[in-house]
Every structure is written in C-alpha cells, then in structure tokens.
Amino acid sequence: MSNQRAARVGEEIRELLAKLLRDEVKDPRIGFVSIVKVEVAGDLRHAKVFISVLGDENQKKESMKGLTKASGFLRSEIAQVLRLRYTPELHFVLDESIEHGQRIAQLLVQVQKEQNEPKKGE
Fold it and tell me: Strand order in 32-40's β-sheet?
C-alpha cells in the first residue's frame, strides 16, 4: 500500500469524522472536539485520530471516553461511506500541540514585555 493512498484515506476519514461528530454523535461527554489529523497505517487496518479538545483536564477525559464509546458507530459510518475493504480500527490520541503553542506565545509576550520595561535605577 502506498503512503500516498494511506494519506488520502486519512484525510477522507478526518473530514468524515468531523462531519459525524458535528451532525450525528450526540454524546454529551464529547465537548468541543477538533480532528487535527488522522494517520492511517499502510495496510489501512489502524488509524490514529489526533484530536484537540477545548476545555480543562476533566473535559478532555470525558471527551476521550465519549469518543471511545462512539468508535463502533464511527467505524460503521466510515465503512458505509468510504467502502474500504478493511475499516480501520480508530485509536484516539489527545493532541496538545495547540495548547503548547499558546503557552509558548504567552511566554514570548511576557519576555518581550519584561525586556521593554525600564529597569530600576535607570
């Protein structure tokens, strides 16, 4: 299986999961979830679904539980829409890169403010 095909299938799965989570999945545990990326194995049997959750640690845990519970429904929808020989097993992974990026941006702003402040005694 080519990496290009796995990447294409991953993008199709990402788009479909985003639509399903927005329109079909009604689990109240699943908060504001964004599908960041989907990495599909070369044999198309496994897919890592990287998600970002807006909220605190408890909301992230609850969203992960809800997504795990909904994975059977999500896989069946993927099978119907994409008509793959093998529907990949979905493995949800919390992607905290957005939070890390925001934290780095905050630190850079703080450092810049400290550098621009006049020092005592000047």
Answer: 32-40, 46-54, 89-94
